[in-house]
Structures are given as C-alpha cells and as structure tokens.
Specification:
The chain is mostly helical. The chain is built from 15 helices and no strands.
Amino acid sequence: MQPQDNAGAAELEEPGLPLTDDALQGVSEEAAAAEAAGAPDRGRCWLCRSSPCCSRAEPEAKKKAPCPGLGLFYTLLSAFLFSVSSLFVKKVQDVHAVEISAFRCVFQMLVVIPCLIYRKTGFIGPKGQRIFLILRGVLGSTAMILIYYALQTMSLADGTVITFSSPVFTSIFAWIFLKEKYSPWDALFTVFTITGVILIVRPPFLFGSDTSGIEESYSVRLKGTFAAIGNAVFAALTLVILRKMGKSVDYFLSIWYYVVLGLFESVIVLFILGEWSLPYCGLDRLFLILIGLFGLGGQVYLTKALQIEKAGPVAIMRTMDVVFAFIFQIIFFNNLPTWWTVGGALCVVASNAGAAIRKWYQSSK
C-alpha cells in the first residue's frame, strides 16, 4: 500500500477528490455541449429526426464504452504497484524514513513541474485556497513520513493493515469539520477497525506478555504502531481538506504543494536528527528510485481506474493492498503472519469494504 500519500494513496486518497463521479459527469456534459454547439445538425436522421440517428446511437455508445472490468484491473494493478513500493521501503537498509520521503518528493517534483507548466496553472494557487494548500502539503507529507517509518519498524502486513484504518478517521473528521452525516453504520465500521488494530498490536494490558510472532521488540513495535495510526489520521485530515477545496484547485497544484512542503519538512527533520547520508549500497540507490517510480505508477493507474469505474468498487478492490502485503511478507521476509494479524486484517478489510459498499448503494439510489 501507499499512503493516502493512501494515498499519496493516503496518497490513495490523494487522487480521489478531482475524480469523483460528479467531476467526471461535469466533464462529460461539457464535452457533449461543446460537440452539440459545434455541429448542431450533424448526423440528423431524416427518418427519426434525431441526432444522431437512434439506429446508430447504440453502436456508438458501445464503441465508446470502456472494456468491462478494466477499471477494476487498473485498481488491482495500482494496489500491486503501491505494495511493491512499500516492499522497497522495507528492503532499504541504513536510510532513514525521512530521507526516503525526501527522495520521493524530489522524484515527484521532477514530474509535476512540467505538468504545471503545460497546464498553465501557476505554482501558487487561488488566493482563497492557499492556506488549505499549505495544510494539505504539510499534513500529506507528514503522513508519508509516518508510513515509511511504520514500514521500517513493523512487519509489512501489520503496517499496511493499520494504515487502512484511515477511512474511519475520514468519516469522523468530515462529521466534525464538514458537517457530514455520521450514521450508526459509520460507528459500527469504526468499532470493527479499532478491534482489528487491537488484534494486530496486542497491547500487554489485554494480551499479557504473549509476544509470539513479533520479531521486533515491543517498544519498537509500539513506535511503529503509533506512526501507522498517525499516518491514518493525517491522511484522513488531508482528504477532508481536499474535499473542502473541491474542484477549485488543480490536482497537480495540490501535489506541487505536497512535494515542495514535504521536501522542506524532510530536510528540516533530517537536519534536527542528523540522519542525512547518501546510501552507500548501489542496490539501496536503485530501491530509492523504484520507490518513487512504482509509487507514481500506482497513482497513475488509480487515477485511470477512478475515471472509468465507480468509487465503490475501486475502494473495495483497493483492499488487495493487504493481500499483496501478506504475500510479500511471506515470500521476501520469510515471516508468516500470526492468526492475530490475520484476524485484525479481516476486521479492518471488512470495515473498509462495508463502508464502500454502503456508499456505493446510497449513490446508486
């Protein structure tokens, strides 16, 4: 998984706002209006007096329709790429999580700058939205740093599953700041998520001194747990800010603030910690490049998926991140997850899937 960075994710959550069903509907309506304005009588049938002819409308619609299941395939590919990026974060040796975040920001900056120049959106943004862009950048980059730290200090599966608790926090923050409805179903999904996190963390006051299946010391694991939960919280706050801004801010401008402030924040933290150092191993340098490359690829395919598929099925398919994390942990680290972790993962995935199905059902009414 990749942080709404889930992003990213959080970056999951990052590309979510500009590509909502409403936004896509508006784009298609504008395109249709422009076409009608340009050729008002083109293709008008003399028999049925419709434009285009009813006999040709259905084949044309079929021709333009995307391949069935293509959006879900893009989502699956996105989940795989995000999971591989997380795997490389786990495999990097002697490079601090904050430094990995800095390299990621530099890589994305090189991609975003040409996009902003091409789209002519500028680098500052609308005057009334700049404070939200700054908050989005700071919170989003902090979420990225926290998930990288969690992945370095916890098992790949545990860290990934805990970060999937972000939708629960999103519902709570949207209720508080955006006055969105918080239903009993949301409360039930919250309970499921909290139960899943507890099963994964296994706090001593509930489970005693049983640490079977935990390779790292409990103090290190606890730090990783707080980092993963922090990632979920900051990713949720980022999503709320993106919802607040709506479609008034270009998506690439939002990413621009994210990478610039993320690089600035990473450099300050590295200076304070004194952890800045170039990786000595050539393989680690390759991993740093691949982290940015696969993370960007995951964002691209998630964006394409949201363009041609409803958000509900995409959100459900995104839970494949957890499956890939379990598979990679077993194959590359020879670490078989405990039944506690499996149970916790099932609770969190059930919560995410339930929330997605419920919203999908409500939107289809």
